[in-house]
Design brief:
alpha/beta; Aspartate Aminotransferase, domain 2; seven-stranded mixed beta sheet; four-stranded antiparallel beta sheet; binds pyridoxal-5'-phosphate
């Protein structure tokens, strides 16, 4: 099964040809989902005792199955948070696989971890955290948030041993991503969401919420989560005033920038993140706005040692990694995963190839596209802008439309292979949401989508 024969060489060429075609195709077909029974009817059972043959399996994938997926890098995919991995990063994802490197410990992965750490050094520099801060790549924002919050919880229990058996309590703004509540559940912690008068949370509101906690809850409070770019609307909490409150109250300050983190590199909006340099931990998803292929998140800590205390795994067969000869940075020590892919390597290669200036330009382009869309919405009498664009998100309404109209419009565009744009909710009402990531999206793409709303 692992030996090389001519068939495999030919297969490899086929696969490489597909890959090259796909990488160079900037407008891949926008596939649509099919029912599982329909797919099964077309391709048949694929796992059999004798195997169906590589060529056959690959053909089924290329001709049928991939067409039942939506390419996230399509320039008219503006739903959720799309992605647009650079060609360089995708190529290097293949290299990462082919190199078979274990990314948990320096002893085995040194050269690859070196690459990841080079990319991480740049990410950390964007945050302006003090000397000594560092981070590690994770499977995504959810895992990064969990890793950070577990570190916060362990530090809280260490500081207040009388709380060793207490459930922790988290405070976050209402705009916090669903993964925060979800990870609180995993940690068996409680979460309270703070309603804001404005569209973002500020220190004053946080202070009020803390003051309202009873003595027991105040003791259980172990972290505050602010959001650096809400996923729904691109809104950034007032990080500097929140940081001050956390410092005064001695509470862990986590900033979730899974979506917005790329914008730390954009000079036009960097000031909106002031205060992030005081965070105890930060989440950034390179697979969102830093053009990495799935999956790649990052968690950054002001004090890396606290993460190590929380996450370093112990086991008889792991002891060798802590040995003198293996000294170096062990990614397994700073997040929830042990065996791990070197998922920061594609980002490293792409950054090394293009330079950080190109990244800044590509991120600024997303912000520009949002502004452009905002102007077009404003000047279209059928449409109503809901709020000014923020980062790369624009929310607006089609006059007279109900929730069903938005849904039908979404399905129609998707079915026709034209675009994927999904509705969202804003203050309880249905809206259309554009989220721009792909710098190859054009003004014409925006015009074409808006025309379907006339
Ligand atoms: C997307 C997102 C997450 C979750 O990240 P995954 O990579 O999907 O796990 C968390 N927080 C925010 C603000 C996000 O936008």
């Amino acid at each position: 099964m692992h030996t090389i024969d001519m068939d495999l060489v030919e297969m490899t060429l086929d696969v490489m040809k597909y890959t090259i075609d796909r990488i160079s195709n900037v407008t891949p077909e926008l596939g649509s989902p099919k029912k599982e029974e329909d797919l099964l009817r077309i391709v048949g059972e694929t796992i059999t005792p004798e195997g169906i043959g590589g060529e056959n399996a690959f053909q089924l994938f290329r001709d049928v199955l991939v067409k039942a997926t939506v390419p996230i890098d399509h320039p008219r995919h503006l739903a959720f948070v799309p992605a647009a991995p650079t060609r360089a990063a995708i190529m290097f994802d293949l290299v990462t696989s082919a190199s078979s490197i274990h990314g948990a410990y320096w002893m085995e992965g040194a050269g690859g971890i070196f690459c990841e750490n080079q990319a991480m050094k740049w990410l950390v520099s964007l945050t302006k955290l003090p000397e000594g801060a560092f981070g590690v790549f994770t499977s995504g924002g959810t895992a990064a948030n969990l890793s950070a919050l577990v570190t916060a919880r362990e530090e809280w229990r260490e500081t207040y041993p009388e709380c060793a058996k207490e459930r922790g309590l988290l405070l976050a703004s209402t705009g916090a991503h669903s993964s925060i509540s979800s990870m609180a559940k995993v940690m068996d912690a409680d979460i309270q969401l703070i309603e804001s008068d404005n569209e973002y949370m500020c220190g004053k509101e946080l202070q009020e919420a803390i003051s309202k906690l009873n003595e027991k809850d105040r003791k259980r409070l172990f972290a505050v989560v602010a959001t650096g770019g809400t996923t729904n609307a691109g809104i950034i909490d007032e990080l500097d005033s929140i940081a001050e409150v956390c410092k005064k109250e001695n509470i862990w300050f986590h900033v979730d920038c899974a979506y917005g983190g790329g914008a730390l590199a954009a000079n036009s909006v960097r000031h909106l993140f002031n205060g992030i340099e005081q965070a105890d931990s930060i989440t950034i998803d390179p697979h969102k706005w830093l053009f990495s292929p799935y999956d790649c998140g990052a968690v950054i800590y002001k004090d890396l040692e606290l993460a190590k205390k929380a996450h370093s795994q112990k086991g008889a067969y792991l002891e060798i990694f802590k040995d003198e000869g293996a000294q170096g940075f062990n990614p397994a020590d700073y997040q929830i995963q042990l065996t791990r892919r070197l998922r920061g390597m594609p980002l490293w290669f792409s950054l090394a190839m293009h330079g950080t200036n190109k990244y800044k330009e590509a991120i600024e382009r997303g912000i520009e596209l949002a502004k452009l869309a905002e102007q077009k919405v404003k000047s279209n009498e059928n449409l109503e802008l809901v709020r000014p664009s923020s980062l790369s998100v624009v929310l607006f309404k089609r006059n007279g439309w109900s929730a069903e109209d938005y849904r039908d419009w979404t399905y129609k565009n998707h079915r026709e292979g034209f675009a994927l744009v999904t509705p969202s909710l804003w203050k309880g009402e249905s809206v259309i949401r554009f989220c721009f990531i792909n710098p190859d999206t054009t003004e014409k793409d925006i015009d074409m989508i808006l025309e379907t709303l006339n």
